[in-house]
Amino acid sequence: MTGKPLQRPLTILGIETSCDETAAAVVRGFPPGPGEILSNIVFSQNEAHAPYGGVVPEIASRAHLEIVDGVIEQALAGANIALSELDGIAATAGPGLIGGVMVGLTTAKGLALASGKPLLAVNHLKGHALTARLTNGVAFPFLLLLVSGGHCQLLGVAGGDDFRLYGSTIDDAVGEAFDKAAKILGLPYPGGPAVEAAARGGNPRAFHLPRPLVSGHNARPGADFSFSGLKTALRLLVQRQTAAGICVADASASFQAAVIDILADRTRAAMAMYRSDFPDVEMPALVVAGGVAANQAIGAALDELAGREGFTVRIPPPRLCTDNAAMIAWAGLEMLAQGEEGGAPGTSLAVSPRARWPLAGKAPVSI
Ligand code: KG4
Ligand code: ZN
Q1: For a FRET experiment, which of 139, 215, 278, 338 has its CA 20 to 30 Å from that of 163?
Q2: Ramachandran class of 307: left when φ > 0, alpha when ψ lies in -120 to 50, beta otherwise
Q3: What single DSSP character describes residue 366?
Q4: Is 179 in the pocket of ligand 1 (CB under 6 A)?
Q5: pTM (2 decimals)?
Q6: Alpha carbons 179 and 184: distance in angstroms, whole number
Q7: Alpha carbon nearest to ligand 1 atom 2, residue
Q8: What are the pLDDT digits (tens) for 117-137?
Q9: Is 141-317 in the same CATH topology as 10-135+321-337?
Q10: Of all protein residues, whose CA lies closest to atom 16 belonging to ligand 1?
Q11: Ligand 1 site, residue 294, Cβ cutoff 6 A
């Protein structure tokens, strides 16, 4: 990033369609935040996907196409803002289900073209990553634990375009592990909230489940994650106990306890990496973002860890942890504020949707 960000409040419309939420929001402010959320409309397709136990891409893109215009209209009306009063239009350009990303990005291009406003092509993960600036004005550099249905990463965030990868999953994402655990235990989709609720009445020490990479035969230092062995162990446990019937609360609590141990151990390792990159930051922030950050037991464990290690935990409220468009609007706002003094990144109408787009990687390709 170059230059000092713009200090005039910007008003941005955000559009999010990369998974199974069709969302639009209007946000106002300037970096480093906090910003003001003028409207935040999220239409969840959970019901449409629930019978399949996961998101069906074809159903998702069709649903986005049917409702995205109405969701945008609601967001603008809720904020009492006309298209002409916006400073820019931000949309998720990836990573995600390509059909859905195409719907949101193409809609945003149409609006940008019709209104003459700049288009901000936003990385969905950057949206999650910068949410704590929208809500709390968290300063760079911070340590980020990004835990969602598709991602599980620890990153040092030194700027809107300066991400240092400390660790990531070598197999499943943590939200995916929650969703698969729910399926194994006969709990509804999406699995994370269902497992968390079931775990509340259970004993976390009832069953011993593995902590891959953290302890046991494949233990190794560092900040990488692995969840697939944990999921397999849960499946075997349920199969073994089926005749007697497993206590879902105990199994959920034991599963969640294993996830917490894994996340806490890897985050502790990443804290050391952050300290060596940024030795001068006093009381740095540990930001937890992505859908799994809505889990209160995980939040409490990370809070305790942060207290011991001299970090301050920042977790956005649950409705801003799961997919939403306010985070996309805010990330677009930061891009525009930076670009007006530094060279307009991602504002070209020629930008393409991307199924894959790592944060600590290259900018989107244009065609
Ligand atoms: O960030 P998100 O809304 O979508 C993606 O970009 O993936 O995250 C959705 C994921 C799902 O896997 C869901 O099960 C998980 O976040 N999740 C939770 C909780 N709420 C949502 N996982 C654990 N505990 C929760 N309370
Ligand atoms: Zn997400």
Answers
A1: 215
A2: alpha
A3: B
A4: yes
A5: 0.91
A6: 9
A7: 291
A8: 999 999 999 999 999 999 999
A9: yes
A10: 291
A11: yes
